[in-house]
What we know:
The complex is a heterodimer. By secondary structure, chain A is mostly helical. Chain A has helices at about 5-35, 55-60, 65-95, 100-110, 115-125, 135-140, 150, 155-180, 185-190, 195-225, 230-235, 245-255, 255-280; strands spanning about 40, 45-50. Chain B has two domains: about 5-230, P-loop containing nucleotide triphosphate hydrolases (Rossmann fold, 3-Layer(aba) Sandwich); about 240-330, CATH 2.40.50.140. In chain B, helix 2 (about 90-100) packs across helix 3 and helix 2 (about 90-100) packs parallel to helix 4 (about 135-150). Chain B has nine helices and 19 strands. In chain B, the strands form four sheets. Chain B has a six-stranded mixed sheet with strand order 6-7-8-3-9-10, with helices on both faces. In chain B, strands 13-17-14-15-16 form a five-stranded antiparallel sheet, with no helix packed on it. Chain B has a four-stranded antiparallel sheet with strand order 2-1-4-5, with helices on one face. The interface of A and B includes residues 194, 207 and 209 of A.
Amino acid sequence: MATQQSRSAARLMMAPAVVLLLGWMLVPLSMTLYFSFKKYLPLRGGDLGWVGFENYSRFVSSSAFWPSVQTTLIIVGSVLLITVIFGVLLALLLDQPMWGQGIVRILVIAPFFVMPTVSALVWKNIFMDPVNGLFAHLWRVFGAEPVQWLSQASLPSLIMIVSWQWLPFATLILLTAIQSLDSEQLEAAEMDGASPLKRFWYIILPHLGRAITIVILIQTIFLLAVFAEIFVTTGGAFGTKTLTYLIFQRVLESQNVGLGSAGGVYAIILANIIALFLMRIVGKNLDA
Amino acid sequence: MGGITLSQVSKRFGTTEVIRPLDLEINDGEFVVFVGPSGCGKSTLLRLIAGLEDVSGGAILIDGNDVSNTPPAKRGLAMVFQSYALYPHMSVRKNIAFPLKMAGMNKAEIAKRVDHAAHILSLTDYLDRRPGQLSGGQRQRVAIGRSIVREPQAFLFDEPLSNLDAALRGNMRLEISELHQNLKTTMIYVTHDQVEAMTMAYKIVVLQNGVIEQVGTPLELYRNPANLFVAGFIGSPSMNFATGLAAEKYDATTIGFRPEHLKLFAEGGDWHGTVGVSERLGSDTFLHVNIDGIGQVTVRSDGDIDIRYGDTVSVTPDPARIHRFDASGVALQ
């Protein structure tokens, strides 16, 4: 963008995209803010006027609020941990030359293409069903009592389902990162006397730092909004109610748009706090 | 200390034989250069010695011990790679200290050795920088530093200067030679550049298609090339060849004569031709002369010669400096 002319041309051409994106964000955001200060009950009288911060205080003082924040953080944290650790290991494995590499890679990536609703239903009915699920059969083979996955171990089950969906994404990004590592660096480390484990720790892992950062940032954005998996499995019961799900219940089940909007604003604040922390902790990896 | 013996070493990748069984003796403290065109197997041979590739046959001995199945780290060799292979996320200090840290050496000793190496290679001011903040020549020195701290039995260099610009390459050539004089450690150096080979080597090994064509000191190879390939590869500009009548006069299928062993006359010489392009270097002039019945010949002449494109000249080779080759390309004595 050297000349004055090309700069203004660039601005003109970017304008539609900027306007569209701004509108896309600003309209829902301002509507959420607008409703959050109103008592708005669509089926019980509609718009009942301004109420100030009453929705905000009611949302936080509800007994479901703090547990839902905790559940959200547990799900996001556990899924991140599982996908990054197993993603690195799977990427290392897939990087090895082997027969049928292409097909194996496609198979590994496949879960990412399954819609969240579908994959949750598949897990719920085929694997985790306490009577006819594959896990139940497996438990019975060993003479054990089948686990009531979604009621007895609801949170771990949910984490398992969501991790299964996001593992391919992490693996894919980390695999490309591993492939971009200069093989001479590994050979140099080998000559320098580093064992395979030390080569992983001192050469491969630091090289993956940036890719891991990207995986964490992108996944966090999506994991904070996990909804379909909860909706079709536990319906928010058994301690699986996340903040997103609580908002959904307030708006659609209790038909209280104002209260739900206030929850939405809290969700935005929570997401920003997490984003700030993430940028502090891992964001510095993106420089240099 | 650091004598390396290759005995019937060969290497196959699948069905292609990259290195045919070969024998080579590298004495302790020697500076040996493997030279040859790309794809001749010189880098593979170095990697076999380093242990980064397994030999398909034969044995590699260091100080008389068979190390063919010893992992690279246990062979006591250090290698400098073409891409330098520095660890980008570590400072220069940590890069140089890495092999010592892997060997589990104590921190005081590591610091002492790193400082010593940094001093030798004038890297002291750069120890806390990352490789990304260094110039090509400095990175090269860090890579060398990383190999000297280990005090290895031998150094292996894999085309270390090919990523540097011409001026820097000349400097690094001197520095590496100087380092060898100081350390007196065996060095094996791979290059495709015959100038590097000639200027640095104590012993040159010329390779082609996985076969050793000739082994000798730079001047031996220059004076008595064993065959056409070595004759054409060693020396710059490369040797001129002539076949047919001109060669039959000397009882050979092919004769070779270097540009510097040709004399120019206005007329009255053995061969006649017209001057083509001339390359003036100041100190010398390389004339490309098209000689009747022989073809394009390079003649080295003094820098001030007054000659132009299209002039006719007469050329005479120094009869004592003519190399004769038989039909299979082997030198005749």
